[in-house]
Amino acid sequence: MRAASIKHAEYEILKGIGHTELADLNIDQLELEGGSHDPVAAKRMKSAMGNIAKVMRGMMDKRVKHLPDEHPDKEAV
Predict the structure, then answer these.
(1) Does any domain span residue 76?
(2) What are the CA-CA distances from residue 45 to residues 1, 8, 27, 41, 53 (Å)?
(3) Per-residue pLDDT tens for 37-47?
(4) Of 2, 9, 56, 58, which is least packed with CB atoms within 10 Å of its CB?
(5) In which domain, by residue range, is 55 found?
(6) Using one digit for the tens of pLDDT, what is the confidence trace for 20-41?
């Protein structure tokens, strides 16, 4: 679908990042170098990923009203 506006394009970018990048992240890859597995650091990273996903979902939600009417994610108002 052709981007009907900048907000529409932003929505599609956020949707793409959310479905690929965050889903593909591995906690072990994100932990700081230090050798052994640190369960506290892993828990922090998992929580941080959830926080970022929540922020991105909020950004997407604010842009839904700018989507074209025929967009599959457009909510009925």
Answers:
(1) no
(2) 35, 30, 7, 6, 12
(3) 678 877 887 88
(4) 2
(5) 6-66
(6) 666 666 665 655 555 556 788 7
Residues 6+ apart with CB under 8 A from 7: 63, 66, 67
Length of the chain: 77
- What Rg, from alpha-carbon coordinates, does the chain have? 16
Closest to 59 measured CA to CA, from 5, 9, 4, 2 = 9
Is 19 contained in some domain?
A: yes
pLDDT (average), residues 7-12: 91
How far apart (Å, rounded) are the C-alpha atoms in residues 23 and 74? 23
Assess whether pLDDT exceeds 90 at residue 51. no
Number of domains, the chain: 1
